[in-house]
Recover the amino acids of this structure.
């Protein structure tokens, strides 16, 4: 399965200078946050494959105008073509605003998904906006990562954690991809293509379509 992960900055080649057919190779598009809703709506129209997204800390506008035709997976567990995906958007709280959390709040969000993680015997891809602490984050408080995401990786060992929030343009020493105990932690700034094998699952459970289990809405 070919996945296109995007975040933080709209890619001119996929929007302003889009050429028909440029997205035809992708089976799934994942947004890690902080993108214009019109951009995600454009991608889902042109690609004709599902677009899943989590919120970035600048996505308060989604409340009144969410991306059309796209699926929000914040605080959700989904399965697509057998690939188990968990969504945990937002960043570390650094000033008043939407989609910002303390580490304790993020732990509670993860704990609410514990049954789904157990039921599906783990997770393949964790989709976040902010990175784990010390693995792809930055030194200023606005871009600190979550310790709770490290704990999630240590317990469930996903193959990938996809995040945004820390722009690759912030400095010459920015690293696109890091390994943390066997999990590939990938900064999806602008766009990042990824190809992974489908997992075989019983058709009576999932088939080849999006399978979505909603969790209780976060009230923290």
């Amino acid at each position: 399965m070919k996945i296109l992960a995007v975040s933080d900055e709209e890619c001119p080649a996929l929007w302003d200078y889009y050429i028909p057919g440029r997205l035809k190779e992708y089976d799934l598009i994942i947004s890690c946050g902080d993108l214009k809703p019109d951009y995600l709506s454009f991608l889902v129209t042109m690609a004709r494959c599902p677009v899943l997204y989590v919120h970035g800390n600048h996505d308060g506008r989604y409340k009144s105008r969410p991306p059309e035709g796209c699926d929000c997976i914040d605080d959700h567990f989904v399965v697509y073509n057998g690939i188990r995906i968990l969504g945990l958007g937002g960043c570390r709280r650094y000033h008043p605003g939407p989609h910002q959390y303390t580490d304790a709040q993020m732990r509670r969000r993860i704990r609410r998904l514990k049954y789904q993680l157990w039921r599906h015997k783990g997770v393949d891809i964790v989709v976040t906006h902010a990175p784990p602490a010390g693995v792809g984050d930055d030194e200023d408080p606005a871009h600190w990562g979550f310790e709770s995401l490290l704990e999630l990786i240590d317990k469930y060992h996903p193959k990938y954690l996809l995040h945004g929030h820390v722009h690759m343009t912030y400095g010459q020493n920015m690293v696109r991809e890091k390994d943390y105990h066997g999990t590939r932690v990938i900064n999806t700034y602008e766009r990042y293509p990824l190809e992974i094998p489908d997992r075989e699952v019983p058709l009576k459970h999932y088939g080849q379509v999006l399978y979505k289990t909603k969790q209780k809405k976060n009230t923290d």
About this structure: Residues 37-47 form the longest helix (11 residues).
